[in-house]
Design a protein that fits this description.
- The protein is mainly α.
- Helices cover 81% and strands 0% of the residues.
- The protein is built from twelve helices and no strands.
Length: 262
């Protein structure tokens, strides 16, 4: 009964992750791994692969919804995720070179950084303060696109996160596209990177296909709801509330992991 209750809670939280992806175009994926590890009781290394499957599938559906609204740039997504695929494959290999404790501490550190980033609204200020990128500047900065895409892909493969909190500001700065279009394009990049990272994890860890499918379905339902609510809710207020939650969860993960090591 105890295990069944945990599974129900984990499924409900997966729907919440999907809602966040639908509303914000990112962010929710960073909670996928803690939900899988601490609520569903899945081993950290296996949880990374499951997270990639859940986040990737949910991001793809949400990207298709944004595509219908004309808010996905396929050309930019393809060029940005090209090096992300390589990075994700390499990052997936790194997962198995560190202990579960090191993996969880790395994830907790990332959560605290992301939470602070979102709470301070750094990404929003970057997007609002940017101007349309000059085509010449964009061509001259191709190596920056390669570097950023590869690093975000590596992060995706290593920790099973989408990286939307980094992709959206990067797309705005490097291409000058509007915020809404950057959000939709980011989701497609997340889906591609997640797929590459998942390929890197296949054969390395046992992934429960039944549980992964159940979590994915709940996240997909949440994403549809989130997409419909996107035009009605204040994105800034929601982002700040979510940032606080991410920082609290990151602190709890770090505290529990350090306590277990000590």
């Amino acid at each position: 009964m105890h295990a069944e209750l945990h599974l129900v809670i984990a499924l409900a939280l997966s729907a919440g992750i999907g809602v966040s992806l639908g509303l914000l175009g990112g962010g929710g994926s960073i909670l996928a791994m803690p939900v899988l590890v601490y609520v569903a009781g899945i081993a950290p290394a296996s949880a990374v692969g499951m997270s990639l499957a859940i986040v990737g599938t949910t991001s793809l559906l949400t990207a298709l919804l944004h595509r219908r609204s004309g808010n996905v740039d396929l050309r930019v997504a393809a060029s940005f995720s090209a090096t992300g695929i390589v990075g994700a494959l390499l990052g997936a290999r790194l997962t198995h070179l560190v202990s579960d404790q090191a993996l969880l501490l790395s994830f907790a550190g990332l959560m605290l950084v992301v939470g602070g980033w979102m709470l301070l609204g750094v990404g929003d200020r970057v997007a609002k303060g940017s101007t349309a990128a000059d085509p010449t500047d964009a061509r001259q900065a191709w190596w920056i696109t390669v570097l950023v895409g590869g690093l975000i892909g590596a992060l995706t493969g290593f920790l099973g996160v989408g990286g939307g909190f980094l992709i959206v500001p990067a797309l705005v700065l490097l291409t000058g596209m509007p915020m809404k279009r950057a959000v939709g394009t980011s989701l497609l990049v997340i889906a591609v990177n997640s797929a590459a990272g998942l390929v890197g994890h296949l054969g390395e860890d046992a992934i429960d296909l039944g549980q992964t499918a159940a979590f994915t379905v709940m996240a997909l339902l949440g994403a549809v709801v989130g997409h419909r609510l996107a035009s009605r809710w204040s994105a800034t207020r929601l982002r700040r509330s979510f940032a606080g939650l991410v920082m609290v969860v990151g602190g709890v993960v770090a505290a529990q992991t350090l306590a277990a090591i000590g």
